[in-house]
Amino acid sequence: MSEETRKAKSAVPKAMFWSIFMNGCLGFIIVNALLDSMGSIDEAINSASPILTILLNVTGSKGAPTVMIAGLFVISFNVNLASIASQLALIIKTLPPYAIAKLNGDQLEELLISTKVQISTDQYRGVMEEDDAAAQARLRAQQQAAQANTRPAQRTLSV
Fold first, then answer.
1. Is 111 part of a structural domain of the chain?
2. Is residue 34 part of a domain?
3. Can you give the pTM of this predicted structure?
């Protein structure tokens, strides 16, 4: 966020503070509203599903809590799936290259794993890709070669 913000030194901390402050205020309001409308605490604690009991007391119908609980299941499933994928990516990154040699690039991209091979030598540290300086040098060499080929040969006349 701070990379694309004007006056990031002051704007980002202010945005973080107000975000936390407003979320705290709204959370306090939600907790108070839930406590006021949930009914007996003993009934909720002693039931098999406290969340369902609270939602039944709050809404007064059976359809709304069912939809809300289904939404919670969908959200929980997606969060767990993303967590498992990120953990799998971390595990695969720690494996040696021969252990993941059979995975193709699409599978690695889905796990957000880079397919670039890092080379470390005394002279150069980087990946096996052409950098900007090498690309510019190659372009200059091609232009010089093209100019050398397009120059007409000079003829000398002898009398």
1. yes
2. no
3. 0.44
